[in-house]
Amino acid sequence: MQSFLPFKTMLPANLFFFDVMVVVILATAAPSVSGQRYDYPTANLSTRWVNNAAAEHSVTYSDGSAIRAIVLRSPQTSYGPSFAAGFFCAPPCQAFLFAVFIVYTNSGGRITLPVNGIPQVIWSANRASPVGENATLELTGEGDLVLREANGRFVWSSSTSGRSVAGMEITENGNLVLVDQKNATVLKSFDYPTDTLVHGQSLLQGMKLRANTSNTNWTESKLYMTVHPDGLYAFVESTPPQLYYNSQVIPSKTSKDPTRVTFMNGSLGIFVHSTQPGSPDASITLPTAKSTQYIRFESDGHLRLYEWSGGEWTMVSDVIKIFPDDCAFPTVCGEYGVCTSGGGQCICPVQSNSNSSYFHPVDERKANLGCAPVTPISCKEMENHQFLPLTDVSYFDVGQIIKTAKNREDCKQACLKNCSCKAVAFRWYGQNDLDGQCQSVTEVFSLQSIQPETVHYNSSAYLKVQLISSSSDPKQNKMKTILGATFAAITTVVLVVIIFIYVRRRRKYQELDEELDFDILPGMPMRFSFEKLRECTEEFSKKLGEGGFGSVFEGKIGEERVAVKRLEGARQGKKEFLAEVETIGSIEHINLVRLIGFCAEKSNRLLVYEYMPRGSLDRWIYYRHDNVPLDWCTRYRIILDIAKGLCYLHEECRRKIAHLDIKPQNILLDDNFNAKLADFGLSKLIDRDQSKVVTVMRGTPGYLAPEWLTSQITEKVDIYSFGVVLMEIISGRKNIDVSQPEENVQLINLLREKAQNNQLTDIIDKHSKDMISNHQDEVIQMMKLAMWCLQNDSSQRPSMSMVVKVLEGGMSVENCIDYNFFNANSAISAQGNPSTYSAPPQASVLSGPR
Ligand SMILES: *[C@@H]1O[C@H](CO)[C@@H](O)[C@H](O)[C@H]1NC(C)=O
Ligand SMILES: *[C@@H]1O[C@H](CO)[C@@H](O)[C@H](O)[C@H]1NC(C)=O
Ligand SMILES: *[C@@H]1O[C@H](CO)[C@@H](O)[C@H](O)[C@H]1NC(C)=O
Ligand SMILES: *[C@@H]1O[C@H](CO)[C@@H](O)[C@H](O)[C@H]1NC(C)=O
Ligand SMILES: *[C@@H]1O[C@H](CO)[C@@H](O)[C@H](O)[C@H]1NC(C)=O
Ligand SMILES: *[C@@H]1O[C@H](CO)[C@@H](O)[C@H](O)[C@H]1NC(C)=O
Ligand SMILES: *[C@@H]1O[C@H](CO)[C@@H](O)[C@H](O)[C@H]1NC(C)=O
Ligand SMILES: *[C@@H]1O[C@H](CO)[C@@H](O)[C@H](O)[C@H]1NC(C)=O
Ligand SMILES: *[C@@H]1O[C@H](CO)[C@@H](O)[C@H](O)[C@H]1NC(C)=O
């Protein structure tokens, strides 16, 4: 059987983002002639430019920054942000970079001076060693681009001599390239990113974005962002590097191809092991571009998206979010600074009640610059090492765990024995602090004070401090006394803090469900108070829909639109709730609706999900809203999205997860009709070793696989339901539709009949001319795939990864399909109400008609 429609051809728009063609027209640098564009995107060999205010395209901005452009490509059509390369300086304009920057040009292509449109540097060659006035840049006859100071001192070169460079050019998307005679790229600035990405630019595995130290000091700071085979990571440099953010994807394929992260319009796409265009394996959603955008990795460790709007650059998104708040960024309070949650204030780790402290602020007036030990830690006097304990304080890096130390004492001892250990943080979940995690820290960046009930773990930090040796110094005895007093004081402080926190927490705890203290790892969903959710949904006023377990309301948390699902207490037991939170919270995939947070207060159970603007699939395929029929391409993409989401649940996440309630109501659509699976309330985790589990019958009539009747349930039930959904998408009706003539009420029965009589075209959605006339063959193939999924014998059904392969054109549908699929749903639907189902059907119904 023919495979059909390779996936690649479905999304031509994506091709735009890859390997942006370098169109070199070496002869276009036309000087300005009235009526002609003022554009100079290329430069030839043996040209030398002097960094001088008298240079041809020299512009000084209102804030004092200046540029001297060498190549510039203005927008093809009109005025707006343009990419240029040349010299750049920030006020007071003594140090210059050779850089690529975005300037604003008028409709004639000339650089103009919008009041707030200061040029934005997106790449630079010499960030660590800026040059001065009269420095030179030369594209030598050998094809090397060389930057020198006015006195001839060498600063930077492209090291391309002998590689037959023929010219330099700036591309439409801001890539500075050196090209050879054949227009082939010899070197491009996109391969050496600094701290910024522009549309179409990729960060490949191994490349780094490095934040600059500050606005005025452009040298690389310790923070960097990089791509590993399984996703995007951000670290602060130390030995070993300390991880503070990652956006991990579980790779579905293995290959030697590098993983990359590409800045696309509307997302940061993560492409695992893929050099081919196609859809990303995961992505970080961004606001779609209304104009030119760039993303900069900044000196505070944030990744921010900027957009040109209303005559200035505005920050439109703080791209990486870290749980629970900004205190989890590594340099938020400098070294050794403690960030207090919520307020975001910085304090030095001090002992109150005592004048002696082990740390002092680096700058009294700027608390966020951090703290330094009063006595530096010396490896020569390890016997004088002690710990300063900090209760309810945690450390961001969970990368260095001392596995052998499970309890607090072992953890501290392990650190005392190793001089490169500067602190430990001991983290435990639940009551048992004898079985926790010992994080060792070799270089102490910001610490954060935590509220255990928010983050769902307890943590204490122990900072290593150096005591002054007691022998010679007369101060020593005093020191000793102080220390004695100090440790008594510490104990008191710790007690006071504990009591204080206990009292503060008590109120909250009284409201909390006593059994709800389950373990949640960092990065897991946030816990919200009921009050907060009531507020953000405007008292649950905007109802989005109703599902088997409760109603869904629209809400807004900060700027983010969310969907708040209020589970009905009576029916949603605690067990299911915990399962749902734990299950959904731990998995993330582009085709699965993201759980943002939850609330569990008294009998209230709420889940906060990302908002899906186009609602559920049933609204679109059953023509509930007189919508125009979806075209085949959209339906195809939706099917593929569902398949990928399910495939992830079944085969790719750490614990195999069966959804058990696949139906159009549980498939949600975003603005672009990307489909995501929702509602894992019925999920049962299936152990990888144990392929079958026995479970209470669940799900929705119409979508139930035959084996529900025998209680031998595997994830293959989802594949059956997927088959039903597939048929519904193709035929534009519900599986069980009582408004149809009696013989047609059941779509699956109808399918069997039509398949046997070779009349499959009869059941294609009549609304869609596109499907009937333009894509009939593909639709028939899709029905065959559906029938494969609907096989009675669950072992005959394909796995979800096979389904994805078929959909992507890598495999064809099995030939020996048994058309005699039994429809379990006919039995159950007889009971009427097809929307919810909670009790197992009666025996007589179970053995009903065949
Ligand atoms: C580059 O060289 C070509 C001829 O090889 C010439 O036509 C063009 O004007 C030159 N461009 C510049 C900017 O000098
Ligand atoms: C740069 O060169 C120009 C002309 O060669 C000279 O007049 C000027 O003083 C120089 N500027 C500096 C800062 O050296
Ligand atoms: C460079 O590319 C342009 C357009 O693609 C083409 O017209 C030109 O002939 C090419 N130049 C060389 C030297 O191949
Ligand atoms: C810039 O920052 C680096 C450390 O990040 C520092 O070593 C250097 O002295 C700073 N330069 C200036 C001019 O402040
Ligand atoms: C980005 O996408 C949006 C909608 O998808 C579109 O309106 C906009 O023009 C695009 N922007 C750019 C810069 O391509
Ligand atoms: C350095 O970083 C700051 C913010 O992180 C940014 O505003 C500034 O433009 C950067 N400077 C350069 C030359 O990239
Ligand atoms: C702390 O120092 C101040 C003066 O610097 C002194 O008045 C006070 O008594 C000291 N407190 C303790 C607890 O030593
Ligand atoms: C000391 O700690 C460092 C960093 O955690 C580790 O690499 C090293 O192996 C440790 N040394 C010993 C002897 O345990
Ligand atoms: C924190 O530890 C205390 C005492 O061990 C325990 O009662 C509490 O449940 C823990 N909290 C969390 C969130 O783990």
UniProtKB/TrEMBL annotation:
State the Gene Ontology BP annotations: response to other organism
Q: Which UniProt keywords apply?
A: ATP-binding, Disulfide bond, EGF-like domain, Glycoprotein, Kinase, Lectin, Membrane, Nucleotide-binding, Phosphoprotein, Receptor, Serine/threonine-protein kinase, Signal, Transferase, Transmembrane, Transmembrane helix
- Transmembrane stretches in the record are 482-503
**InterPro entries according to UniProt:** Bulb-type_lectin_dom, Bulb-type_lectin_dom_sf, G-type_lectin_kinases/EP1-like, Kinase-like_dom_sf, Pan_app, Prot_kinase_dom, Protein_kinase_ATP_BS, Ser/Thr_kinase_AS
Q: What is its EC number?
A: 2.7.11.1
Q: Give Gene Ontology CC terms.
A: membrane
Which intervals hold domain Apple? 379-467
Subcellular location, in the record's words?
Answer: Membrane
**Where is the secretion signal located?**
1-35
Q: Tell me, what is one Gene Ontology molecular-function annotation carried by this entry?
A: ATP binding
* Residues annotated as domain Bulb-type lectin: 63-191
| Substrates-to-products reaction catalysed | L-threonyl-[protein] + ATP = O-phospho-L-threonyl-[protein] + ADP + H(+); L-seryl-[protein] + ATP = O-phospho-L-seryl-[protein] + ADP + H(+)
Looking up Pfam families in the UniProt record yields: B_lectin, PAN_2, Pkinase
| Membrane disposition | Single-pass type I membrane protein
Provide the Protein kinase domain boundaries: 538-822
- List residues binding ATP: K565
Family label: Belongs to the protein kinase superfamily. Ser/Thr protein kinase family.
| Designated name of the protein | Receptor-like serine/threonine-protein kinase
What species does this protein belong to? Leersia perrieri
